[in-house]
Amino acid sequence: MSRFAGRRAIVTGAAGGIGRAIVARLLQEGAVVAALDRDAESLARLPSSPILSRVEVDLASVADARDAVRRAVASLGAPADIVISAAGVYALAPAAKVEEKDWACNQDINLRAPFFVAQAAVAARAGDAAATARGMAIVNIASVGAYRSGTGDAALSYATSKAGLVALTRSMAAEWATQGVRVNVVSPGVIDTSMVRIMDNPEAGAAWLKARVPMGRLGRPEEIAAVVSFLVSDDASYVTGAELIADGGYMCR
Fold first, then answer.
1. What does the alpha-carbon distance between residue 231 and residue 4 come to, in Å, rounded to a whole number?
2. How far apart are CA 119 and CA 168, in angstroms?
3. In whole angstroms, what is the distance from residue 129 CA to residue 122 CA?
4. 250 catalytically annotated
5. E strand or H helix at 56, and its extent?
6. Residues 90, 147, 158, 250: which is the catalytic one?
7. 53: which strand partners?
8. What is the pLDDT along the chain (253 residues), one digit of tens a residue?
9. Strand order across the beta sheet in which 8-12 lies
10. Which of 31, 99, 120, 157 has the fewest Cβ atoms within 10 Å of its own Cβ atom?
11. Mapped to the 3 state alphabet, what secondary structure does 83-120 carry?
12. 162, 148, 135: which is closest to 239 by C-alpha?
C-alpha cells in the first residue's frame, strides 16, 4: 500500500510497543517518518529505511520538545502532514502516597508533551503554502484508563493525564479545524507491550482477560497502528475531535 506516499509524519514514543507498530505501518504505507524517542538504543533498533530518520529527545522538557520538532521537520525536508503522539509513561502510586515527581512524570509526558509537539508542528506549516494545502492529521494516544482503573493499579495520576488528553484533543480539534488540521484520539485497552504487566502471572492474567475483556485477549500493537492509520488517512477526512476506543470490548463490561 502507498496511500501515504508523499506524506511526512512525526511519531513520538516511536521506539515503544505501540509507537514502533505505528512507525512500521506508516513506512509500509509510504510515509516519510521522523521517529522521536528518548531511548537512543531502542531508536537504533527501528527498521533501517531511507525514509526513516531518528530524533532522540526527552519530551519532559517543552523546550526540548519544540527543538525536536524543528529537527524532525528538517530531517523530513518539509513540515509534517501527520503527527502521532504515542509517547507515554505509567508512573504508579496510591493516592495517599503520590508525590510531586509522580504527578509531574505522568502529566508532563502523557498530557503536556502531546500539546507542545502538536503546537510546534502546526506552527512549522504556517508559512508553507504546500503544507497548508495538504492539511494535517494529528492523533493522540490516550487509554481506557481515563475511565477505569481496571487492573487495580494505583494509577490515579496516569488516569488523570489520559482523561486530560481526551479533553485536550477535542479542544485542539475545535481550534485548529479552520487551519485544515484534524485532531483525534485513540484510547487503547490492554495491549501486549512492555508496559503491561497483567500476564506476568499467565493464569491470573488469562482469568482477568476472560472476566473483563469480551474478546478475551490482549490487543496487539499492530491493531492500534491500523486504527491510527485510518484516522490520519483521507478515509477519515471528515473525522475530527473524535475518540476511537480500541479495547476488545473492555468498556462494555
1. 12
2. 12
3. 13
4. no
5. strand 52-56
6. 158
7. 34
8. 689 999 999 999 999 999 999 999 999 999 999 999 999 999 999 999 999 999 999 999 999 999 999 999 999 999 999 999 999 998 888 888 888 998 999 999 999 999 999 999 999 999 889 888 899 999 999 999 999 865 556 688 999 999 999 999 999 999 999 999 999 999 999 998 876 767 778 888 889 899 989 999 999 999 999 999 999 999 999 999 999 999 999 999 8
9. 52-56, 32-37, 8-12, 82-85, 136-141, 181-188, 243-246
10. 99
11. EEECCCCCCCCCHHHCCHHHHHHHHHHHHHHHHHHHHH
12. 135
- DSSP notation for 182-251: EEEEEEE-SBSSTT--GGGSHHHHHHHHHHH-TT-SPBPHHHHHHHHHHHHSGGGTT--S-EEEESTTGG
The total number of residues written for the chain in this structure: 253
Beta strand pairing call for 32-37 and 52-56: parallel
